[in-house]
Amino acid sequence: MTGAAGNIDVRLSPLLLRLFPDAEPRLDIAADNVCALIDALDARWPGMGDCIRDSSPAVRRHVSIFVDGRRATLDTKLPPGTDVFILTAISGG
Amino acid sequence: MTGAAGNIDVRLSPLLLRLFPDAEPRLDIAADNVCALIDALDARWPGMGDCIRDSSPAVRRHVSIFVDGRRATLDTKLPPGTDVFILTAISGG
Amino acid sequence: MAKRVLVLLGTKKGVFILDSDESRHAWSLAGPFCETWPIQHAIGEPVTGAIYAGGGSEWFGPAVWKSNDLGRTWTHSRAGLAYEAGEVPVKTVWSLAARGDALYVGVEPAGLFRSDDAGETFTHLDGLQKHPTRAEWNPGGAGLILHSLVIDRADTRKIWVGISAAGVFHSADGGATWEPRNRGTRSDFMPEGQRYPEFGQCVHCVVQAANSERLYQQNHCGMYSSDDGGRSWNSIEAGLPSSFGFPAAIHPRDPDTLYLLPLNGDIKGRYMPDAKAAVWRTRDGGASWQALRNGLPQESAFFGVLRQALATDTLDQAGVYFGTSSGSVYASRDEGETWGCIAQHLPMISSVETLVLDEAARGGA
Amino acid sequence: MAKRVLVLLGTKKGVFILDSDESRHAWSLAGPFCETWPIQHAIGEPVTGAIYAGGGSEWFGPAVWKSNDLGRTWTHSRAGLAYEAGEVPVKTVWSLAARGDALYVGVEPAGLFRSDDAGETFTHLDGLQKHPTRAEWNPGGAGLILHSLVIDRADTRKIWVGISAAGVFHSADGGATWEPRNRGTRSDFMPEGQRYPEFGQCVHCVVQAANSERLYQQNHCGMYSSDDGGRSWNSIEAGLPSSFGFPAAIHPRDPDTLYLLPLNGDIKGRYMPDAKAAVWRTRDGGASWQALRNGLPQESAFFGVLRQALATDTLDQAGVYFGTSSGSVYASRDEGETWGCIAQHLPMISSVETLVLDEAARGGA
Q1: What is the pLDDT of residues C292-327, one digit of tens each?
Q2: Residue D267 · residue D251 · CB < 8 Å
Q3: Fewer Cβ in 10 A, N or C end of chain B?
């Protein structure tokens, strides 16, 4: 499943899906960089943006965004066709 | 109680005294700066130095050294007659 | 009308709710709610019946959860619950206070937010960030936390907050401006000669007495009361087994009756004195204290009780409830005379609050 | 000769010791020891009878505590238990393993120390710091921790460590050089296509089977065994209620018998599945599993059990013991068939280990 022309292929963490039960686990979305992607997710599911990004602003410490398999920051560019995974870190206790 | 000529007047936290029951709560000691003071304490009570200072090297985050009422670092100078308090931070839970 | 009593538990792994009729003899347990987030405080608003829970996910940061059906379903919001870009981000919600649809939210790092739409959106009351002493506030070992939140019953513009370890601050204008209110409270952790500062005290819990403007304060270093809105504090620790403890809870009607849970001391493990559990009660505003032990564990009680984990209900006789760091809940239905364990095996309990409803409201949780 | 059994508990507030004769019917509790420091691991050395406890004070950093009289008196040392100046300081001791007067110490941030004088002084075995992959190790949510320490019974130069979240590493030369041993273990928290990396797995616990070189591993993502020293791992999670859990404990004589405490899942609260407590046992090396519930809480069991908090003793029949995050200890004296609670109201339990002594040693604790 590759996205529509210009779109990227985004998969969301199961933990995020528990918090936003209406969200889709995998979606096509248009965004130039990670920051714009988060804005687009927040527009669809209000509040999701603040779950992924804090007011530093930065990707939250225990959330990982992998872009084509590499860990990304808010500035990371998203060329069309990019695979994006938004995952949560493992954690103790 | 002011120290002997050239000495400083040091008071130790009750928590440190619980850990080193042989240590004195208040003592006169000769040291030019905080780092040398910690070395002197460690020479008298082996292990006390590493309790106060970590290998950064720095005063441990939750230990406070007050020199004449002001928070000090390892480099803080200790003129003769200085009052030094080695205290532990408050802490939750 | 017959009453129903809910005991709301904020825990390290979500909210739990204990539910009983007004006899308070049998309790049912529901939960965990709120996706097992660490919840610092869960409260009920008695007029609207809303339940709010505040905490912070280690992944997703702070949020306020809300249930309008007594726990059956929940929503969450964080809209506006953030500092300006570039500030240290809000880590978690620590304390809640509600008056109808107005909701006050204390957070870490210390700050205060307000919602006027029952927890849907939040506005930062930035007076605490702008306080001239702010840069000097000491985060202490656990962080800089606004954990105590007192909204005056008669005038909601009058607010007192307790911040660890900055002390007690008061606003007379709804949170726009603040002044320190710590005179008379000790800071034993400072060098001699600096133990009564203007601010920097390690306050643990502030509550307002019933039918009164009196304040009570459990501090890291002593127990205090104030009859002048916190301008001056008087020690009421004589007769207690320890000057160290976390929570305080008021009687619902008597301003002279207060409950405490002193621990064995700051540096000795912070558990029940002599490992025997007791709630301590004054009936005379702190002049004298009695230990209430009947039905509580009297050996090997090595648990603690956190600052928001002691509460009363509004029935007559008043119920008293506390939750332990080892996940047990103890309850008294006779103002503390006798006790029983009403839940165990729960996660570490951060907060205990009650919500007393008319029986007609039954149906949730 | 008659035996005496000590159960050593590392807790958030010091070491506690439970003590019984070999019938294991009645237990006495002593503690807290070690100045109520957070203790991650307390062990007994069966030949010398020494008890060691490792942890870290929030004020004073890491130390190893030691008692030569079964808990009556304790000393502490941190001599040499530090990284080079300029490195991130050692925060706390996490895991201990002893062979006579040799003591191995795993710490956070992940590293290994060795004492040859029964815990008086320590030397850094710096091979892990020098590993070429070190810069890429992911600290995970809880920090970069060396929490599992297996010293081969026959050859103490052979060491396996579990590091969260770097995975399993093996040294054949006493800690000088290391290689990753993670083939076959999953990393479900990575993107698809990257779930079987050379290192970076979230190992939770590694143990060596009795009378065998077989290793067992509870991972964040699955349960595994290895018959080739960890070069390859095989999933043995079929039949378990969850692939997620923390501790694993071996039978003292049978390499095919292993005990686990699966939790309800990574993101669902990490408590007992369906809130009913059970220890799971295999008698056939992981081919099949049985739930052992007789005497354990079967409702509202919302506690967890941490990675070092499950242990067996060496008696026949073997005893099995676990300590909960809510401060209770459960014990079986018949290899898990029946259980009872032998302590409660304790601080959060980090570790459980046993020390079986000849009755003549009585007199301590």
Answers
A1: 999 999 999 999 999 999 999 999 999 999 999 999
A2: no
A3: N
Asked if the model's pLDDT at residue A91 lies above 80, the reply is no
Rounded to the nearest angstrom, the gap between the alpha carbon of residue D261 and the centroid of all alpha carbons in its chain is 13
CA distance D43 to D103: 11
Taking contacts as CB-CB distances below 8 angstroms, the residues of chain D near C343 are 300
Structure tokens at B11: 């008071």
With CB atoms and an 8 Å threshold, state whether D59 touches B55: no
Alpha-carbon span C11 to C309, nearest angstrom: 10
pLDDT of residue A28: 95
Express the helix, strand and coil content of chain A in percent, nearest 5 each.
25, 30, 45
Confidence at D361, pLDDT banded by 50, 70, 90: low
Q: Which residues, listed in sequence order, are joined to residue D142 by a DSSP beta bridge?
A: none
| Residues D295-314: tens digit of each pLDDT | 999 999 999 999 999 999 99
Which of A15-26 are b and which e, b meaning 16 or more Cβ less than 10 Å from the residue's Cβ?
A: bbeebbeeeeee
* Res A2 pLDDT > 50: no
Instruction: Give C345-358 pLDDT, tens digit per residue.
Output: 999 999 999 999 99
Backbone angles phi, psi at D309, to 5 degrees: -105, 30
Q: Which residue of D has its CA nearest to B45?
A: D77
- Please tell me which chains touch D, using 3 or more CB pairs under 8 Å as the contact test: A, B, C
Interface of B with D in 63-92 (CB under 8 A): 63, 88-89, 91
Residue D56 has pLDDT above 50, yes or no: yes
Q: CA angle C35-C37-C40, nearest 5°?
A: 135
Identify the band that residue D360 occupies on the pLDDT scale cut at 50, 70 and 90. low
Q: Which residues contact C138 (CB under 8 A, 6 or more apart)?
A: B89, C144, C165, C166, C200
Domain ranges for chain B: 8-88
Output the six-digit token pair for C40: 């610092």
Sequence-distant (6+) residues with CB within 8 A of C12 are: C38, C39, C347, C348, C350
Residues of chain C below pLDDT 50: 364-365
Residue pair D36/B91 in contact (Cβ under 8 Å)? The answer is no
Is D76 close to B19, i.e. CB distance below 8 A?
yes
* CA gap A70, C59 in Å, rounded: 19
Interface of D with C (CB under 8 A): 13-14, 16, 29, 32, 36, 58, 141, 268-271, 297, 300-303, 324-328, 343-348
- Domains in chain D (CATH in brackets) are 3-358 (2.130.10.10)
pLDDT in tens, B33-61: 999 999 999 999 999 999 999 999 999 99
Backbone angles phi, psi at C239, to 5 degrees: 100, -10
CB contact under 8 A, D60 and B55: no
Range name among C300-309, D195-204, D217-226 with the lowest pLDDT average = D195-204
Contact at CB, C142 and B15, closer than 8 angstroms: no
**D144 Cβ neighbours under 8 A, 6+ residues apart:** D108, D109, D110, D137, D138, D163, D164, D165, D166
**The amino acid at D218:** Q
B62 and C CB contact within 8 Å: yes
Token pair, residue D177, equals 């050089």
CB D276 within 8 A of CB D298: yes
Nearest CA-CA distance, residue C25 and chain D, Å? 18
C-alpha span between C306 and C322 (Å, rounded): 9
- A18 CB neighbours in chain D (<8 A) are 267
Residue of chain A minimizing CA distance to D147: A92
Q: Which of C144, C145, C189 has the most B C-beta neighbours within 10 Å, making it the best mutation to test the interface with B?
A: C189
Interface contacts C/D by beta carbons within 8 Å? 83
Question: Is there contact between B and A if contact means ≥3 C-beta pairs under 8 Å?
Answer: no
> Are D35 and B19 spatial neighbours (Cβ–Cβ below 8 Å)?
yes
